[in-house]
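Treating backbone geometry as a discrete language has practical consequences that deserve illustration. No coordinates are needed to read the tokens, only the vocabulary itself. For completeness, the protein is quoted in full, as a sequence line and a line of structure tokens:
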Amino acid sequence: MSAQSDRRWAQLARELEFTQLPELRRQAEGWRTGLTGLTALLAVLVTLKGRDDLAGLPTAAGVAATTLLGSAFLLFVIGSVLAVRAAHGRPGSRVLLAGQALRRWTEQEIVRVTRSLRYASVCCVAGVALAAVAVVVAWATTETPPDHLVRVTTTTGERCGEFVRSGRGGVVIRTDDGDGRRIVLPAQAVRSMKPVSSCDTAS
């Protein structure tokens, strides 16, 4: 390596002392933007879509998924606040005019901004991980609704369940009463049969 190259690297190293804080501020702005976007996205998904999905989960799974999503949202908010403070400093900071005082303040600010960015990144990663775990919990505990649900009107009332077969002996459906037993509705008693999306309400 030539002497000219060494001098250039030494010059860049000296300049880095004066540009390190602005560069960290720019990095903090990027983290702030990303965390704010993740926070808004999670809030929108939970508000518009997640409420119905979480309500359909078993009680324990619903509580676990809600807790995980709430913790993820809190971590995103904390990370966003840390990134904002790193990008813009503390409110009420004084402008230092003395050279040595400014140098000490800059060194302290670099340490503080670096620490805030590190904590913000940890909050981001942990928040994404918690949100992912909440999704896995929801997927693992959501029961697949039965296909081919029908509502059969008979002379004695209505019955709803999963269609199994029909023939001369009547219409056979499987009810959702815990044991999945089959019910045979005599053909002469059947008045109508129509497909539905849920047995809770007619559709």
